[in-house]
Here is the input.
Amino acid sequence: MKLITVIFFSLITLIQTVNAQESVYTRFGLGDVQFSYSGRRLGMGQMGTSVSDEDFISTLNPAGWNKLKMTRIEFGVAYNGSFVSDNSGNKFYAATKFTGFTMAFPASTQYGIGIAMGIVPVTFVNYQVNEHGTDPNPSVGDYTISYQGTGGLSKVFLGSSYMLPLLDINIGATLDYYFGNVNYSSTISFTGTSNLSATYQRTYQPKGIGTTLGFISPDFLSGVGTTFSDLRIGASINIIPKINADTLLTSSSTLRTDTVTSAVLDMKIPYTLNAGASVTINKKYLVTIDVAYQPWSEYTLGNIKPANMRNMLLLSAGTEYRPIRELGSSFWNQLILRGGVSYEQTQYFVNNTGINQVSVYGGFSVPLSYANTFDVGIQYSTRGTTDALLIKESGLKIAFGLSLGDLWFLRDEK
Here is the structure.
């Protein structure tokens, strides 16, 4: 318990070290889509739509809660480092952020009823770009324009899973409440003391209701005595019928701050479709293949479609090595190892160029006790290009998480 406490406060300390930016491309739309909040899923390619875990709370597919055996509490943080380069040079930026909190418990192990709730990020905006210039008018002289964006979209969810009797088909659903605060600002400052700096800031505060529906198939290899077992397919869809966004545009200088406009706009966030397959080999190796699709070309704000958006497509493959639990196993024989790769056609389309991303993943879980683990996931990615006046980013993401389990709320099945 002392070790868990030390790790917990270490993670809380990390949350306070947010610094600089993550990606300049997050200035478009609502920013980068967050597929997984945990180091566990990040380590194997972020997805796992068809996987049911007894010791992990998936936010991708609520049907995956059917095998929960204990009450679980999970949370995590992530460190993001990014090398950004263009034709003029390169820089390094870093940021650390809270990535989510979830809680779940098994209401009925016989019927696969697991109930889960939590708060997780959906998109993330964090960038800062500086532009330097000189006005030909001597009274203006040198100036710097700074473009900055922060915030994102998050959701609170409550849902349940259920196993259809005799069919071994697992289904699940959640009720999601979306909320957020996204700030975009531009500030112009002058070298000369005779000119006043000015800042224009636009703030969006979206909120609305949505749902996530999912299923996981029966084991197609049930009863077949082979090296392969637990072959399943799964799918989930996230639907957000309507989002309202309070918007506020302000201008400020050293003299005063004015509200330019304020309104409530309709925001249309497109559905997300996830699908995948998984199989276990020799009862130790889990292999997953997944695809995610979100038509961001349909995203609108105030019935206006941004020009720099296209449909997002993610292809991911991952593996997990989980040794069979035995009494007396050494620490090293209880480590869980993970790896994966992915290719993402991101939703960003800038200067007539699509921004694509390639990632490799790795990770592990350290056992703290029989039901508790400290999870680490690592992602290295590259995206963008220095051609067409664009920016290339090489990113390193390290996610840390705690997964804690205990016997709460359990009752004997009749």
In short: The first strand starts at residue 32 and ends at 33. Residues 1-20 have pLDDT under 50 and may be disordered. The CA atoms of residues 127 and 406 lie 40 Å apart.
